[in-house]
Amino acid sequence: MKFRTGLAVGAGGSLAAYAVGATVRRIADRVVARYRAKLERAVRRLGAKAEHGGPAVKAALAAARVLHDGGSPARALLSAGWTALKETLKRIFGGGRRGKPANIVEQIDIGAPCRLVYDQWTRFEDFPSFMKKVVSVAQESDEKLNWKAKVFWSTRSWRSTIVEQVPDRHIVWRSEAAKGKVDGAVSFHEVTPDLTRVLLVLEYRPGGLFERTGNLWRAQGRRVRLELKHFRRHVMTHALTAPDEVEGWRGEIHDSEVVRAS
């Protein structure tokens, strides 16, 4: 009798354990189903973005696909890292889209009158004498200039066209080049009669390998900041000591055409 009771109890315990196990499996199946559904939505969403996205988006898509296919999180991370590296190298070596422009905004205060600072800036052919990376500037006309500058240990050339120039206020230009070009604007602001603020805004479009690599590390922004300091030093040590010798161009340009000569 006790033996039968033990059997009954044992049978009942087994049935209860089976029921609990079945419930756990159903809950687990629902969780997995929801997880897979989220992964499927993530894969579709990332897939739509990946065509025009950067390395990070494509890396996330690769990881989501591995998880969706039942791979481990470790394998997903490995796939994401490899994809990010591959896409970055493709961009650097020209396998991807052309590099996106880098917007560079810098300003500097110079202890000199606004007119003197502006006049010195318009003397473009003087730039190589005090800027470290500018090799040469040839001004073929009031609005056309040919530039040559160093990028790492390479040399790049481009042609710029001044589209607007107003004395003591601003200069705006566009450029054309095979590898890397810079469009931008520089404005001059009188803080006090003897203090001028120069605001420089550049849109740098990397072209070659060196430019794209430099763009990743924002090397151009640091270079622009340093060149502005060189310009300030030149104004303070040369132009300010002999202002009568600084003869700038006082003409005016609109829509790339000279409307008033100097």
TrEMBL record:
Transmembrane segments: none annotated. It comes from the Bacteria. Pfam families: Polyketide_cyc (PF03364). Gene3D superfamilies: 3.30.530.20. Residues 110-230 form the Coenzyme Q-binding protein COQ10 START domain. InterPro entries: COQ10_START, ORF3, START-like_dom_sf. This is SRPBCC family protein. It comes from Actinomadura logoneensis.
